[in-house]
């Protein structure tokens, strides 16, 4: 394994050149059903859309209670 001379390494003070923050509206999350944790997750992320691979009636009810319908 080759040793690296730390004096040759360049440290960038501005991480914005490499990383950026995303709005929650731009995030796509893939999560399994998790019983009681579902309520907490729904309250935290407030999704606009929910897609279920295997619909679960209990989870559907949690979505209906936690996320009010759009008034449009």
Question: Strand tally, please?
Answer: 0
Largest sheet: none
Helix/sheet category: mainly alpha
If you average the pLDDT, what whole number results? Answer: 77
Tertiary shape: elongated
The portion of residues assigned to helices is 25-40%
How many distinct domains? Answer: 1
Could you give the order of the helices and strands?
Answer: HH
Can you walk me through this structure?
This protein has 72 residues and is mainly α. It contains 2 helices and no strands. It has helices spanning 37-45, 57-66. α1 packs parallel to α2 (57-66). The longest helix has 10 residues, at 57-66.
Furnish the topology, listing elements before pairings.
Layout: H1 37-45, H2 57-66
Helix pairs in contact: 1-2
């Amino acid at each position: 394994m080759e040793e690296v001379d730390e004096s040759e390494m360049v440290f960038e003070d501005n991480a914005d050149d490499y990383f950026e923050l995303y709005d929650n509206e731009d995030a796509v999350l893939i999560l399994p059903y998790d019983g009681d944790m579902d309520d907490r997750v729904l309250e935290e992320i407030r999704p606009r859309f929910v897609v279920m691979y295997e619909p679960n009636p209990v989870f559907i009810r949690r979505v209906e209670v936690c996320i009010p319908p759009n008034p449009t």
